[in-house]
Amino acid sequence: MYVRHSAAVLAAAVVIGAAAPAIAADSSPSASPKPTYPAELYGTTDPTYDGVWRQSLAMLAQDTVGVKPAPKAVDWLLTQQCADGAFAPYRADAAADCDAKTLVDTNNTAAAVQALVALGGHDAATSKAVTWLKSVQNKDGGWGYMPGGASDTNSTSVVVGALAAAGEKPADVRKDGQSAYDALKQLAVPCKDDDGGAFAFQPDKKGKLLANADATAAGVLGSLGKGLVVSPGKETPAADCTDGGYPSPLQAAVNGAAHLTDALAKDGHLTSTLPGAEDQPDYGNTADAVVALAALSGADAAEKPLRWLEQNSAKWAKQSGPAAYAQLILAAHATGTDPRDFGGADLVKQLNATGPAPQAATKAADKDAEKDEKGDSPFGVWWYVGIFLVVGIGIGFLLSGRKKGPQA
């Protein structure tokens, strides 16, 4: 979704990604075996930096369309939680206690809270996670990616979503008298500056606020007190940034939406700022912008980028995997669009195929099997079992290849 980890995690992912092409495949008998990851996990790529994040987004998206995730997928997420309530991106040995070396963070914790609240029945886990989030709030009212890190718009906003989902009032969660809204207002670019109305991720080394599309989409939702799942809003969009300096939370959201609208006006999509990809469309941020605009002003405000995604996002989603499918489903949900016919694609089916079969599909298969056992099928139960095994082999191959999930 709009929070695709901190700059530090991004840097690590970029280094890993940049090094990969230089490493030739070694087919010798002594080559290290290809690592395997839990079958309960959505996607098949290395979950070190995004396991909990993509699991949470996938299940959250499924919930919006009435799909119940497999119990083992939910259980996997729960096992990733540390005793103090925090989540790390991925703990290979979930049976081991978390310690000072366990890199827990606010983003994965907040995403897990939103998913578990939506699924219901996990009050103990979400309560512990919220308590931990409150304990690492910064003095300016915001949150950084890592505990003790400087506040940033993305982390602060995803925590706001978790607090709201858990029934807290973000405005009342304060440190030294400051709330998340105070932190977000300080990260909003003043109207008098270039790109006024946008949000910065953090101030630069000189203290200047530089517009960031990812942060702006996040900041709009955070300022509205919204999480990753939104319903169409009814606020009147602004044509220009107004009420410069440190506006009210609502005005900050309106200003941010105005900036996004301007950025999307020409091509219908945002452009990547990653090194080497500056001229490429940024599909993830465009999906985030759709959610933000719809949350403020309804589906019409997000129509242009939504239509662009319908026509152009299929290849990106296939390469990027479960978190990307989830982002598109959440964008569709925010605008009242059918995710099962998104530019001709069934996003729900595609997302489901990246993880354990959801409960609904499992129950349907069980019903069919029961019918065959009772003689409703002329071929009998063993014919059904044989077909199911063949289909299962095919599904195994379908789930074997996809790229990495969230990115900054």
From TrEMBL:
InterPro entries: Prenyltrans, Terpenoid_cyclase/PrenylTrfase. The chain crosses the membrane at residues 381-399. It comes from the Bacteria. It holds the Pfam family Prenyltrans. Residues 56-166 form the Prenyltransferase alpha-alpha toroid domain. Residues 353-375 are annotated as: Disordered. GO terms for molecular function: catalytic activity. Residues 1-24 form the signal peptide. Residues 364-375 have a biased composition (Basic and acidic residues). Keywords: Membrane, Repeat, Signal, Transmembrane, Transmembrane helix. Residues 353-363 have a biased composition (Low complexity). SUPFAM superfamilies: Terpenoid cyclases/Protein prenyltransferases (SSF48239). This is Terpene cyclase/mutase family protein.
